[in-house]
Amino acid sequence: MKKLIILFLLGIYAFAGVAQEADKIVGIWWNDEKTSKIQVEKVDGKYIGTIIYMIPEKYENGEPPKDDENPDETLRDRSVLGLQILDGFNYNAKKKEWVDGTIYDPKSGNTYDCYAWLESDDLLKLKGFVAGIRWLGRSSEWYKTTL
Fold first, then answer.
1. 28 Rama class: left (phi>0) / alpha (psi -120 to 50) / beta
2. What 3-state class would DSSP assign to 34?
3. What is the domain-level CATH number for residue 60?
4. For 26, phi and psi rounded to 5 degrees?
5. Mean pLDDT rounded to a whole number for the chain
6. Residue 127's pLDDT band (boundaries 50, 70, 90)?
7. Which end of the chain is more exposed for a tag (fewer CB within 10 A), N or C?
8. How far is CA 56 from the centre of its chain?
9. Residues 89 and 99: beta-carbon distance below 8 Å
10. Going along 36-109, which residue ranges are E strands?
C-alpha cells in the first residue's frame, strides 16, 4: 500500500511538470515582423492565440486593418485586431511541441495546419503546413514580449 501511495504521488509530480512545460507557450509574443503582438492562452484545455496589438503604422485611416482576404465575405469587414489566429493546440510532451492546431494568415485569408515548439524561453517557432505534410509549409519565429 505504501508503494502504491508513493507511486501515485510521483505520478502527480510528473504530471505537474508536464503541465508547466505545456504552459510555457502562454504569454504575449511579437510576430516575426514585429508588427503585431499575439496573446497565447489556454482555453478549455487547448492553446489559442489572438492579435491584441498592432503597430500604428499598419493602421488604415486611423483604424486597424480589416480581415479583407477572408474567404468568407461576411467576415471581411471585421478588424484584424482582436482576431484569433491560433486555434486548437495540444501539448505533446514526448516531442516537446504543440500540435494539432491551426494558424490563420490574415494576409492571405488562408488557414493552415500548424505545430509549434520553443527554441528558447523567448523564441517560439511555428510551422504552418498543408495536406498533412509537415515539411510542406512555412516557418515563423515569434519573440516573447510584454503588453
1. beta
2. coil
3. 2.40.128.520
4. -70, 135
5. 89
6. very high
7. N
8. 23
9. yes
10. 36-43, 46-54, 84-92, 97-105
